[in-house]
Amino acid sequence: MVVITCNCLNVKLSSKQNPNTAVFEFLTDSGSENTPFYPNKVLLVEVIDPGITIEQDYLVHRQPIGEWLVHSCLNCGLDVYATKPRSSRLLINQKVQYDPAVIDRLHHHPNYSDVFELVLPEKDTPFQTIPDRSSGQFESLQGEINMVQEQLTNYLIQEETEMENRIKHYEEEQRILFQQLQEKVRKDKKK
């Protein structure tokens, strides 16, 4: 199995084959046009279990182009893949990552977030302006902000629980060691 990912690890695909063996010129059903969403060659892959994993769905934009639905990662700005109805095959951008060493480096990047499980953008990355409160986009944005806040809260609760368990385990180990020391001292005293 080969893991294919966008440049920030938000979108991950599982494939049977290494994508560099599947480069081809995209042909539409009607002729030989290049894809409008990938200006060069694209890669064709077939997904296998676990299929497509998206860490933060609100950071993926889906746009229909002809018969294809293009999935773009808003976090790293990459048009990652395109799907066609009733097909397990995907067209993927040549700029995706599939080298295990590169993916490992991304997991150890200073901006990698354990909370969101992706590489966060640099602080000085410009973001779009917040939509007007009267627009429907504002409500959608507010819902996404609430999801992020809930995710952060859940992560902190989980980490706190794990920390308390580690402390409890350590305390139990130390008590056992102290009891063993007491027994040794008593035995030594009797000698």
Put the structure in a nutshell.
The chain has 191 residues and is an alpha+beta fold. The chain contains 2 helices and 10 strands, in the order ββββββββαββα.
How would you describe this structure to a colleague?
With 191 residues, the chain is of the alpha+beta class. It has helices at 100-107, 136-190, and strands at residues 2-5, 11-15, 23-24, 42-54, 60-65, 68-73, 78-83, 89-92, 112-113, 118-119. Strands 1, 2, 3, 4, 5, 6, 7 and 8 form an 8-stranded antiparallel sheet that branches. It starts with a strand and ends with a helix.
Q: How do the strands and helices of this protein lay out in sequence?
A:
Layout: E1 2-5, E2 11-15, E3 23-24, E4 42-54, E5 60-65, E6 68-73, E7 78-83, E8 89-92, H1 100-107, E9 112-113, E10 118-119, H2 136-190
Antiparallel strand pairs: 1-2, 2-4, 3-4, 4-8, 5-6, 6-7, 7-8, 9-10
Task: Please name the defining characteristics of this protein.
two-stranded antiparallel sheet; eight-stranded antiparallel β-sheet; alpha+beta; 191 residues; single chain; Metal Binding Protein, Guanine Nucleotide Exchange Factor, Chain A; 10 strands
Q: Structural class of the helices, strands and pairings? A: alpha+beta
The N- to C-terminal Cα distance equals 65 Å
The main sheet comes to: 8 strands, antiparallel
Determine the fraction of residues in helical runs and give it as a percent range. 25-40%
Q: Just name the CATH architecture of the largest domain.
A: Beta Complex
Tally of strands: 10
Structurally, the number of domains stands at 2
- Unreliable stretches (pLDDT < 50, length at least 5) are 25-35
At the fold tier of CATH, the topology name of the largest domain is Metal Binding Protein, Guanine Nucleotide Exchange Factor, Chain A
Order of helices and strands: EEEEEEEEHEEH
Shape: elongated
Mean model confidence by pLDDT: 80
- Report the total helices: 2
β-sheet strand percentage: 25-35%
Q: Which radius of gyration do the C-alpha atoms yield?
A: 25 Å
Oligomer: single chain
CATH class bucket of the largest domain: Mainly Beta
InterPro entries: AKT1S1
